[in-house]
Each structure stands twice: as C-alpha cells, then as structure tokens.
## 1
Amino acid sequence: MEQSQLDALHTWFDNYVQTYNDIDEEGFRNILLKVEHTRKVCEVMALLAAGEGMTPEDSRTAAAVALLHDVGRFPQFRRWRTFRDSDSDNHARLGIEVLRQQGVLDRLPAAERLLIEEAVRFHNLLALPLRFRSPTSLFIRLIRDADKLDIWRVFLDYFKQPENQRPSAVTLGFPDLPGVSPACVRELAAGRVIRLEDIRVLNDFKLLQISWVYDLNFRSSYRLLLQRGHIQELAATIPLDVEAAQAVAVAVASIDRHAQKENT
C-alpha cells in the first residue's frame, strides 16, 4: 500500500462518519466516541508497528486495518442504539458490508484487500481462528492488541465524565450493582479471558477487561500497557474480596513479565 492510498482511506473515513452527524445529541456522543476510538487505535497501531520493527509498507497496511476495523459500529448504533453485538449484529460483519458496499478497498490489489478484510472480520473474536490465510495472522493480532489498548482508555475515561455527558453504550447496559460473579473470578484466576456471556454486572465487565491481559500478542503491547497503567487503574475501581484481589494481582504481575519476554 502506498501512502497516497492510505491517505485516500482516511479521506473516505472522514467523509463517511460525517453522514452520522444528523443523529440526536445522545446518539452523537456515542458516534463521536467511536470516531475518537478509531483515531486513538491508529495512534496505538503506529506505536506497535514501530516497536515491532515493521517495514513501512506493512506499517501502512496495519494503519489501514486500524482505521477500518470498527466502521461497522456506526450503522450498528444507528439501527440498534447499542454496541453490544449479541443485541444487534456482529459489528465486524457489518464493517465488511460497509467496505464492500462502498467499494472502499476496490483499488487495492486483491491480496491486500483480502488481508485487510480478514483482519477486520476476525478482530473481535474471543479467540483467533485456527486456520486463516497468511500473512493475515500478523495484522489480526496487531489490531486485536491495538483495539484493547484503547478500549481500556475509553472505559476509564467514561467513569471520569459527568454522568449526563457519558456515552450511553460504553458499558453495554450491564447494571452497576455491588459484587462480582464467582464464575468471572474463577476464569480470571485460571488465566483465561472471561466470556461476555458470563457477565452479570458492571464489575464483571471490568474483570473481563482485566482478563484481556492474557490475550495480548506482542511485547510492545505489554510494554505500552505497563507504561499506561490501565489495569491497575481499572482494578482500583472494583471492590474485591481476597480471592478476586489475588486473581487481579496475578494478572497485573503478568504484564511486567510479558513486557520483558520475546513476542508471544
């Protein structure tokens, strides 16, 4: 991908999101949330590409994946007023639909177009598919890491805002009730990513996001997470019993350990 092609994708994105400016005020907060998220994911992706020593061409492809990974969120929210896929449609699938309907990638070589589409399609899976076309694996793992690294920021920023200014869809509708679910604590203690189906309350959703430390792919990702301190900040917002606190402590300790290791 040439820089001019990447620039054209940015121009398309800017024009596309402007078509959602006619939404109501509360909805517009959620649209702006995803626009800012996209731009921040692009920034994180640039840091990961540099940290992993990627070539300029691969870095531009990674940047395109970052820019386009969440385009399905916009029609999703307009139609269903939620970012929860189980209550609407898979936003990754919707993203591919947008890209194809608008011919966004039509001027790229077929192999590069397929690579970007696959990275968008698979970026939100609980676990990576066992088999997919190479070298798509690199870009899927990059976007999954870059996405998480900014979602942590989004979530923490949400709680710092006045309640009447918070984008309504961030917490996916989970009730802010006391306690955490034992099933979520068990999964975190076992070093596994908590499944969305196990979430009952907002504190569970916070534990799910903490469990993402077990699903990062690059040393650069762990180093960036270590620098930003998102997990410690998130953990500080959850009242924890002894068992849950121990599980969180192990997850936090794993960040530094992985930051020192070779790529996973």
## 2
Amino acid sequence: MAGIDDSLTFHPLRIAVLTISDTRTEESDKSGALLVGRIKDAGHEIAGKAIVTDEIPAIAAQVQTWADDSGVDVIISTGGTGFAPRDVTPEAVRPLCAREMEGFAVLFHQASFGTVGLSTLQSRAFAGQIGDTFIFCLPGSTGACRDGWDLVLKLELDSRYRPCSLAGQVPRLRDLCA
C-alpha cells in the first residue's frame, strides 16, 4: 500500500524556492513564504530563496545557478505558469530540462481541480530534471502552492514514501533510500 513507511529513516532534501513576479517583494511574497514554511515543517532544508522578474533570462539564470549547485537537490518555483502575457516560466525552464515529468502536471491538475474546479485549466504547472536537480513549477497563488505541496510534493519528496520516493533519485541519497 502506498504511504509513509515509519520504519524508514527520513532524509531531508535541500530545496530552493523561486518566486517569479514583477510585483512581489520579500514582504509581500505570500506564496514563497508558504512554500518555505511547509518545506521546513516537513523537515527539509531551505537551500535558497529568491525572487526574479517575469523575464526569461532572469528566470533561466537563477534556475541554472541552483541546478549547477551541488547543495540544491530540488527547486520549486511559484508564478508565471498562467496565460497572461508576462507568464513565461515554462518558456524559461523547459529548455533547461533534460527530461520532463509529465505525471506531475496530471497529479497537480487532479489535486487543483478539487479546490478550484475547471480553473485549473489556466495553469501550465510542470516539472522536470535539469542535470540531477528536479524542478517543480507551480502557479503563483497561495492556494496553488498549498495544493502542489500538500497534495503532491510533500509525500513524493519524503524519502520514506513507498513504493518509491523521488528522494531515491537524488544522487547523494541513491544508496540510502532507493
């Protein structure tokens, strides 16, 4: 049966949070703060936090910097995944990915449908892998970040989750929680 196996050791991941917005500041970034709080509450480490504007070069540069950093296992971004003219997160991140994780978008939309109904169609949430670093791109609302973390990522990033956890694909943990 799928779930947390309490007999296993929890191995914290090092997760960086990127907010993509032309208007948010550290003081007004509720979605980024929500993710940071939930990541810490789950026992993971914050490897970085940044806010960049809705510009492809700015997004790609920050994501690539973290993907190149061996101290970052996972990147979670919030914002820029909709259909407004300035929403360019997928266009900035997809070219960096060696592989996409199609199942993430499916599960995110299923979870989101339960809270926002058909409005989930307006999200281009997605995930992929840049080198050995996983990236999950969530919409910018606190509700979407809550759904993405609570209903999908919290379990999938927990090394004790069975039948398997994405943590087992992080190079430094492959031998510990495969």
## 3
Amino acid sequence: MTTVERVRGELSDAAQPVDLSGDQARAERVAAARRHRRRLIDLAIRVASLAIALTLWEIAAWNVDPVLFTSPTNVALTVYITFLYSIPSVALVPLIVLWAGFDTTAKVIILFLFAFFPMVINTYQGVKSVDPKLLEVGRAFRCSERQLWWNIVLPASLPFIVTGLRLALGRGLIGMVLADLYTAISGIGYLIVRTASTYQVDKMFVPIVTLGLLGVTLTALLRLAEKYVAPWTAASRDD
C-alpha cells in the first residue's frame, strides 16, 4: 500500500461518524444494575438489622420475669387483632373498591371490615375477663368444655359481646355510607353526594336524618334483645 492510499484510508475512517449509542446503552445498563444492586444491599441490611434486633429481644426475654418483660413472639401471638384494628379502615376503602369493583360485593366487604374488629376485640376481652373461680367450680363439678362455655363463659362475657355489637353497629353504618360514597352508584351515601353537589341542602338532610333514626332504632332493638337474652346485665346496670 502506497503512502497516498494509506492517507486516503485514514481520511475515510476519520470521516465516518463514530457510533456512541452502543456504548451509552451499555453504560446505562451498568448504572441501572449498580443501582438495583445497591437497593438490594440496603434492603438486606435493613432486614438483617431487624432480624438481629428481634433475636436479641427474644434472647433477652428468656432470663426476665414475664411480668416485667416479654418477648416479640408473645407479642405477635397476643395482639395481632389489635394490630389489624389499628390499620385505618378508611384508607383501605379505595383499595377494596379497586379489587372488588363497584357492585354489592365491595359494600359487603367494607361493612364487614368496619364491624368485625370491635365485635371480636370486645368478645375476646369478655372471655378473658371471666372469673377463674367460676371456671374452677365448673371443673370441680366435672363440667365438659361445652358446658363450661355455654353455662359460664358465654353468660359472663355477654355484656362485652353486646357492647361490641353496639360499636359494630355504629361503625357498620359509617362503613355503609363510605362504601356508597366511593362506589357512587346507589345507596344513602350516593344520595348525600348527589344532593350536596346540586346544593339541595333540604334533600341532603333526608338521608342524614334517616341514618340517625336507623342507628337509634337498631340500638334500641339491641337493648331489647339484651334484656331478653341476658336480663342480668340490665339488672346489674340499673343497680
């Protein structure tokens, strides 16, 4: 190759555009992989730190009186209902509507979510507050588990159960209205939204007053049922 041909080749190579797109794409992929690896490392460090802290807590609780200190295992076994109840139910309503749609199913789930936890927590507290002496007397008379529950535990915890039903009733009405507000298809909440958006204040108060009357009526019926099923609770309250 002559000098002239070599110079022409160098000039032609220099004249061709340099393709930097491939290098840029590879650099972006490397950077993305590095960021992903860094996130995984951060997550692993956080999980490991939490696991170490819980393990140390568990080990420390082995040598301490349970009256003064407890372990995370015992906490997880005894307060998970309260943990779920502490989650704001209102924040879950849009998610439930997104999952279950705008039909009756979503309203039923929301109503159950609002009414379930007060009833369960009060029932649990009622069962826990049964006098142990009554249970000892029942076992001394050789009562079966069914007889203990039916004749001792259930009557003693009925005041708590009725209180839970009252709380569940009020929260259930709130859940019903919220379900109607988010679905916005039918129901009392839909009437409130529609009349408020058109500035019909007189018509807006009709469903509101209806809700109040419904709550008062259901509470009164619940009290009548309490007097019929557990008259001793009403007598103790009067005393």
## 4
Amino acid sequence: MRWMLAVAVALNSFAAYAGVGPGPGLTGNDTGGIIAWTPDVDLIYRDIAAAHCARWNRLTGITSVHRTYGDYIGFQCIYDRRFDPRKAWVPGPY
C-alpha cells in the first residue's frame, strides 16, 4: 500500500511540471509569444514567428530581441487589415 502512495506522489510531481511556463523553443498563442534565444535561432527567428502566426491567418511583429542566453525574442501576431474572412471562406465567428 505504501508503494502505491509513493508511485502516486512521484507521478503527481512529474505531472505538475509538465508544460508549466516557457520551455525551450517557442511558447505562445494567437496573440503572440516568445522564442528562447540561441545563436542558431538568431538567424531564423523571424521565420519561426511568421510560421506560428500563420496558423491564425495573422502577420508577425517582432517586439523585442535580447541577444543573451536566458533571454527571449518577443513577437506579436497582428491582423492584416486587408484580410476579409468572408471572401476567403474561412470558417469561424465574424
């Protein structure tokens, strides 16, 4: 019985840390996000942000770039004023 309690506590502690806070890579939603800075990402962060915002038919605006380890590249997803969802046959609330 004690081993079942120990297993439950261990699994619960692992589940508590899964997906909490910004992790490595990209963290964001439909309004924007952050990308962890590395020298490899420094060359392609605009493409990563554009691909993320393209999921919601939005454009990308880079808001901040801090080129040090432990810092992030911030971006926002903005609507294209010329985009009309009714003409594009995009499902969803208008």
